[in-house]
Amino acid sequence: MSIRVHKLAKDLGLTSKELIEKLHKLKIKAKGHMSSLDDDTATLVKEELTASVKTRKTKEKTVAPKEKKTVSTKEKPVVVAVPCAAPEPAEEKAPEPSLELKVLKIDIPITVKELAVKLQTKPNELIKRLLSKKILITINQSLGEETAGPIAEDFGYKIERLPTQEEALLQDHQEEVDPKKLKPRAPIVTLMGHVDHGKTSLLDMIRETKVVDKEAGGITQHIGAYEVVLPKGKVTFLDTPGHAAFTAMRARGANVTDIVVLVVAADDGIMPQTIEAIDHARAANVPIVVAINKIDRPNINLDKVKKQLASINLVPEDWDGKTITVGVSAKTGQGIDELLEMLLLEAEMLELKADPDRPANGIVVEAELSKGKGPVATVLVSNGTLSVGDVIIVGLNYGRIKAMLDDKGHRVKDACPSKPVEILGLSGVPLAGERFYTVTDEKKAIDIVTKRRLEEGRKKLEASAKKISLEDLYDKIKEGEVKELKIILKADVQGSLEAIKDSLIKLSTEEVKLSAIHSQVGNINESDVMLATASNAVILGFHVDITPNAKALSKQEGVDIRLYNIIYEAVNDVKAAMEGMLEPVIEETFLGRAEVREIFKVSRVGLVAGCFISKGRIPRDAICKILRDKDVVFKGKISSLKHFKDDMKEAKEGFECGISFSFNDIKKGDIIEAIEVRKVARRLK
Ligand code: GDP
User: Fold this and answer.
1) Final residue belonging to a domain, choices 351, 371, 397
2) Is the dihedral of CA 540, 546, 550, 554 positive or negative?
3) Would you say 69 and 75 are in contact if contact means Cβ atoms under 8 Å apart?
4) 300 lines ligand 1 (CB under 6 A)
5) What is the residue with the minimal CA distance to atom 10 of ligand 1?
6) pLDDT in tens, 498-528
7) Interior CA angle at 416 toward 415 and 421, to 5°?
């Protein structure tokens, strides 16, 4: 019997890297996280390390203070000198109450039924408990870690997630790269900039002059990306220009772009979308090379554009700054060679490298259902070499690669890192931005994809993944999850933008830094929400509106948007949020109105109001207000809602019903209003 390093690390609550370091200190050989240790060594290591690890984990395990003392590194010299084993000072000050939670190792997601067995309770008990937490779920539905964790604690258990089959697979792909095996790869470039500044024209011009002419008679295929081969190296261009696509990919976790070419028309200069593009690139930490386009036009002033660039922190190199700027024309082709050369130079500085000799993984840049070929996807390999015949999984799809075509429509057998290829043979159409991984066989691929599909269904049932909100900021700071609060600011005038930005940045503390990743005049749009999603930011607006599309998207993505009219209120809110003092407000939504037309006295029930629903609906479980001459005389739950003798779930507009409350002073002529009460993010208008 033996145990893998990553498994042992998990058991000990360490990362593989931490464990390997410790093993080396114990003079035990372990190359990587997939290395094996025999049982005896593992037991020894466990004994040796548990003492030191425990102190690290006291917070989770809530070890009793007494026990904690005995394992303190101060009193008992630990064999291995491990820096991370020092007890956390905060815990010494305030020992947590001893509440031993038993550790339970389970597969996640887990069905209610399975979890009940593990928690040694009845499924019904578990369902009841979940219901009390407002989670409505049936016995065969699955729970994720975020739900199963807290509920297990109620039963005295702390759950630990066993690595999924998928994680085991991904670990093959994440095996540490050997620096010696790394080879330079082509930079992947996206063009961004204001509309009509010439992004598409530039992409076309580069393709026509640099791709086709090498291939006598060949025509380029639009597969979503193309490669330019130059004497000094290759450059890969993504065919979808603009920051919307760029950030949409990023929101799915795919940072494919290595360099952004910011296209600025020489005759137009910096425009609003230029600024947006810059902020999107910066939020992604992607370097920018500026192409000043349309230099063939008469009466243009390059210096004017450079001055504008300098004013937004893109100081051109020829002005002693760091930003590479190249004058180009997508019409005449002027400057394009220089631009390409600059891209190679920038790539060299970035030291872009990949290991072509490992299991291949990469990203989908475009995909569609082709009439003749079935699902096709253009992918860029990140690491490894993808070959015809490989089995891959990608999102909720899988397949054995039947054929691969390059950007000139030629069949190719292999694709090395950064080379765009269209692949055929997938089970369905993947999404742009999804990552693919090669796996050893089709059965494994099907297993993983089936699990992913189940998981997908579960995720849809549970609330959409929440992004950072001001409400949960404090907890996240405390848990050390958030070290930086990213903010997107939108205002009606430039003056307010600057003022609020300054006041907010000043709120930064040692624990959390506040940074405005994008601030601009104008309404909150989809692009802002996308940026917030991709960067986990909150959006603050002043005297602005949210476009309907942005509103819908923010709901879907769980992005926190707050609108204000007064700067100081926003600053106060953020401050309060950082201190954990931000209370949510209670929002009432009107559901329906009933007129009390008659009062009946019913024995054992009390007063029943005979009502007519004049507007909307009155659900049985709604909170109601009883209004008399505009005064609220009662607010509370309905005791019974009936139509004659039958209980009703809901009474609808135009119908009659009998309603009773735990209020025995209801009168003819009163108005009953049903409302929905929700706790919502505080939003000052
Ligand atoms: P995009 O919206 O940024 O993709 O811009 P397009 O590539 O669609 O270009 C917008 C307009 O500018 C088109 O009418 C192009 O013909 C024109 N255009 C683009 N580049 C140049 C250029 O270098 N010189 C001139 N004179 N016109 C250009």
Assistant:
1) 351
2) positive
3) yes
4) no
5) 196
6) 888 888 888 888 878 898 999 999 999 999 9
7) 35
